[in-house]
Amino acid sequence: MMDSLQELYQEVILDHNRRPRNFRAIADATRQEGYNPLCGDRLVVYVALEDGVVRDLSFEGAGCAISKASASLMTEALRGKPLAAARQLFADFQAMVTSPSSEPARDLGKLTALAGVREFPTRVKCASLAWHAVNAALNGAAPAPVSTE
Ligand code: ZN
């Protein structure tokens, strides 16, 4: 059971790395860069808000499989969410990837695929990068890139 679950999660990550969803720029959206110097991941996220709802969300850039898969899964998870729900999911995701790996992972649907990074502290930054960038964008775009350091 556990093995097949882990395989499934790996499949989700590999699939989103190979075919990242919403991998494009959005004109007239808030643009936020994110950089993870430990791994070299560089992503740009685009967030288009309308009436307090995340109307559209995308990303571009280059990074490791974890950072790209996480960004891709994030765009799917946050699209259409009201601002408050998007912020809550950011908090839930952070809690999931930073919780002790001895505890059962919080179930966040497909995003749970990334819970495996808990055992690899440097990978937590890869998984969190796009989320930090979006959070910064939601809080009013910062002119400087978001860094995980
Ligand atoms: Zn990385």
Outline the secondary-structure elements.
Layout: H1 2-18, E1 30-36, E2 41-50, E3 53-62, H2 65-78, H3 83-98, H4 121-138, E4 146-147
Parallel strand pairs: 1-4
Antiparallel strand pairs: 1-2, 2-3
The chain binds zinc ion (ZN).
Residues 36, 39, 41, 63-64, 66-67, 126 line the site of zinc ion (ZN).
Structure overview:
The chain has 149 residues and is of the alpha+beta class. It has one domain: Sufe protein. Chain: A. It has 4 helices and 4 strands. Helix 1 crosses helix 2, helix 2 packs parallel to helix 4 and helix 3 runs antiparallel to helix 4. The radius of gyration is 14 Å and the shape is globular. It starts with a helix and ends with a strand.
Spell the H/E element sequence.
Answer: HEEEHHHE
Summed up, the domain count is: 1
Which fold name corresponds to the CATH topology? Sufe protein. Chain: A
Estimated structural class:
alpha+beta
Number of helices: 4
Summarize the structure.
With 149 residues, the chain is α+β, with helices and mostly antiparallel strands. The chain has helices spanning 2-18, 65-78, 83-98, 121-138; strands spanning 30-36, 41-50, 53-62, 146-147.
Notable characteristics:
149 residues, alpha+beta, Sufe protein. Chain: A, four-stranded mixed beta sheet, globular, binds zinc ion
